Amino acid sequence: MSAAPRVLRAGERGVLLEFGSLAEAVAWRAALSEAAIPGVADAVSGARTVLLRFDPSLTSRAAVLDAVLALAPASDAAASGPAVTIPVVYDGPDLDATAALLGLSAAELVAAHTGRTWLCAFGGFAPGFGYLVSDGPSLEVPRLDSPRTRVPASAVGLAGEFSGVYPRASPGGWRLIGRTDAVLWDTARTPPALLAVGTAVRFEAVPS
Amino acid sequence: MSALEVVAVGLLATEQDRGRLGLLDQGVGVSGPADRASAALANRLVANAPDAALVEVLFGGLAVRAHGAALVAATGAYAPLLVTSAGGSARTAAMYELIALAHGDVLQLGAPSSGLRTYLAVRGGADVPPVLGSRSTDTLAGLGPAPLAVGALLPIGAAVDGEPSVDAVAPPWGGGTRAADAAPPAAVLEALLGPRDDWFTAEALSTLRTGVFAVSPASDRVGVRLEGPAPLERAIARELPSEPVATGSLQVPAGGHPIVFLADHPVTGGYPVIAVLTEASIDRAAQLAPGALVRFRLAR
Hints:
heterodimer, A: Gyrase A, domain 2, 4-stranded antiparallel sheet, 19% helix, B: Cyclophilin, 6-stranded antiparallel sheet
């Protein structure tokens, strides 16, 4: 199990839990969702944090914290359900430069990206966007110095400790390594997002 | 079927209900009315169910024509209300009271004398098709009904809960401030420090505690942008890993001028939140017009 979180206040109804690492935040979030603490309306994940929003007419800050600190999450996060497979054409404009930053060939970067299971840790940049994390050799790269004014929908990228897929065209500073024909966001679908917090993801290389 | 026909719109008018719940893990915020207390009161006046959709009107300018009889009520920002019958006779109507519209009546909202957002509820609710379980327009995510446009028909639904039990109520907030006043008194917003007050210098906390902030014209449903006497400087300069933000958060971006997050705020953000408004002050902040002045009362 991992260490107890630092507890911060976020308004009259909010408790922000801060963890020492992304892995701990992911593990605690899974435990918090499973525990379904009475009076807690929702939990929202961040890169090192989880925000709990409680209803003061049903519970109190002290009762919520007691319930949180009684949890003992597993040390590694479990994904909910089977992995979603995302087919990727690895021909992104930043593929070669990103591989070089990592000391890899383009083929080695593709092998590393497809050869591991990713987990959607948190979202929030846009509907349907998931910040994906993984174990294994680091694929951590800095964001572009100068973000693109337009990244096309379905571009697959790397930035910081994350991989992600743009659900719609938007400005963005991620390093683009490929593209997919998977639909990340569709309001006519239930659920609308292909990836939600806790979803496991595998990328699969496909020809263009 | 009875309906309200939009015959004029001002800056922006959107439909709002209690919001889009349960989609935070998919990156979708709650949305809903910016001033929740005023919206709830409008629905209560016409005895609507709490999840009935109503219209949020930014700085007046809306006019609707009743197709069939309709019972409506307006709350929030004080707009002059004028009802013109199909025959051309006009009468004034009051905020925070039940208004009975006959077929063909046009209700017109003028520019508010105080406050920013007026809520217009119709008994039965605006029955437009929901998107992902809600009739709220989320301006950030681009979800929900399109903003009201001239010619749009709002079908009146059946989202009622009993019969109206009062004809008029008192406003839930003190009347707001007027941007046009020569020396308007500063509104006072109450906030609880944290979660990231320790990321700021003592001077920044002092500025927040004592300074007068002006509401920027760049404010919208995402947030009230404030310009203070000095930027709020950081004591911790490193980048904040993206973290979830609550409605009412006072987020401080790189320039040091805070934003109060309202209904359409992003689910997560990469800048520290120095304090979070109390629930009542969130509603009050949603009524601050550009140019309004604000002070903070901070509690730990």
